[in-house]
Write a sequence for this structure.
C-alpha cells in the first residue's frame, strides 16, 4: 500500500461519503477536509521511520498541544496509517498528543 492509495481513499470518503470539501497536498498538509465546524488535517504515514522521525519533529505539534496556533491551522488532527502500523501509531499518538485521532 502506498501513501497515494491512502490519500485517494481519504479523499473519496471525505468528499463522496461525508460530502465535505477536501484537498490533498495543500500547503503543508497531506489531506485536509472542511466541515461546518471543523478544519481537519490528516497526515498519511506508511513507514515507522516516517512516523517517528518525520512527523514527530514537526513544529505544528507544539501548537496543537498548547491550542495556540495561527488561524490557518486545522482544529482537528488525524494520523492515517496502514493496518500494520496501527500499534505504532497508537504509541506515537500517546506520546505526541492524546487528542489526536488515528485512521
Amino acid at each position: 500500500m502506498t501513501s497515494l492509495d491512502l490519500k485517494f481513499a481519504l479523499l473519496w470518503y471525505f468528499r463522496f461519503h461525508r460530502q465535505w470539501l477536501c484537498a490533498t497536498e495543500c500547503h503543508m498538509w497531506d489531506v485536509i477536509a472542511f466541515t461546518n465546524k471543523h478544519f481537519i488535517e490528516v497526515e498519511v504515514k506508511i513507514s515507522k521511520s516516517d512516523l517517528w522521525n518525520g512527523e514527530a519533529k514537526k513544529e505544528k505539534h507544539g501548537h496543537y498541544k498548547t491550542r495556540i496556533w495561527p488561524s490557518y491551522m486545522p482544529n482537528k488532527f488525524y494520523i492515517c496509517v496502514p493496518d500494520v502500523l496501527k500499534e505504532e501509531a497508537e504509541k506515537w499518538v500517546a506520546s505526541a498528543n492524546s487528542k489526536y485521532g488515528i485512521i
